[in-house]
Amino acid sequence: MTRALIACLTAGALALTMNLTPACAQGTGSVSDPNAAQISFSGDSTQLNTHSNGRHVFVTGQIGEQGSYNMIVDTGAGVNVLDLGVADAMGLAVVGEREVLSGGVEPVTASIVILPSLTVDGLTIENAEFLTMDLAGMSQGDAQFHAVLGRGLFENTLLTFDPRQNQIGVSHAELTPGDPGVFAYETTQGAGFVINIEAAGQSVSMHIDTGASSGFTFPMAISETLPLQGALQAGPPARLVGGERSTWLGTLDGSIELGDMTYENPPITFLDPSAPHGNIGNQVLGDLVMSIDQRHGLLSLNRSELAGDSVLQAAAIPQGPRRVMRNMGGGTRGAANDGSDPRRLGIQLRGMGGGDLSISWVEPGSLGEQAGFQSGDVLQTINGRAASEYDMAELGALFRGNTPLQFEVQREGNRHTLDIP
Predict the structure, then answer these.
(1) CA distance 170 to 280
(2) Is-cis flag, bond preceding 219, omega within 30?
(3) Strand (E) positions, 191-304?
(4) Do the beta carbons of residue 347 and residue 368 sit within 8 Å?
(5) Distance of alpha carbon 155 from alpha carbon 297, whole angstroms
(6) Which of 13, 242, 316, 338 is most exposed, with the fewest beta carbons within 10 Å of its own?
(7) Are 280 and 215 in contact (CB under 8 A)?
(8) pTM above the 0.70 mark?
């Protein structure tokens, strides 16, 4: 059997994103169907405990009797992926290889291995096919990920993501057409779960991607048809398998209608080059309860009762184009905070493997630049508390509030104190 794969693996601004799906390139080896693996759990359902590093939601599990390993359950992935280092350490036999393509860049070759057993909490997966790739090297600025579990593993179950409850449910239940928040999704080749949203009155096909840390990402081709608040600004490059893509960042002048939910003037990203469809990542999905029933082609999206004001929603106050998707704080750039608008620091944070936070970008003219932040600074303390002790929700509330901030940062071996009144 020949099989080709399209892969989109991004880090940095869009973080770790995997869109791995069958396509049209040639491969070698006798390979099993990656969706033919056996999964099992006791009773009618099981719950997988999830963790978050502020960018990704992931589970931990064992491979064979070894572990624990960090794994992303990724609706954007049509195949499964295992970190190359883990595969080598386990001595897994290569049963074939395939070219992995990403539009606009050169293909790379991925080997194929079979995992006899993988367990995550009460879920067991047996004899699953995985591609081996350097996940550790691709997840720069994030906790190290060892595996990606693609959507095909769960094609005969109901998969429910509830990030606010820190769990993913796997069950034999079914979705019912006509129930609140339930609608059919499209299944086009290479796109996974595709739904239509309204962006400033324009219908756009969007891919549901739990492996992406971004919010709303659109193809560059429609940037001229969507109304924006101000001009687009160049964002950091999106790192891909075999190359990079350009990102352009701005704020939509209008609303996005996603099911029964409305996002007013949200920050958005354009990717160039890109697939014909857009992408909805965890900055949006993190506040939702989402269930996917692949047996009947149904999907449900409902706002979590535990969701407060997300970074995405807080950033949706009309304020001109934004430079980064997770630019901590809202409000007016470089202006003193009088309490009428959320404060906006204009810094992009990047999580590191040990739980530290570094500055990956500083917006020109922002409060962060005025305080003296520089790209590459590693946060040591915030108001006397170790920066690694904060989660992203706490930081978002702290940065947007009125409390004076004092930072200790490490820069080229020296400590610096930076103040934002």
Answers:
(1) 22
(2) no
(3) 194-199, 202-208, 216-219, 233-234, 238-240, 243-251, 255-258, 261-264, 267-272, 278-280, 288-293, 298-303
(4) yes
(5) 10
(6) 338
(7) yes
(8) no
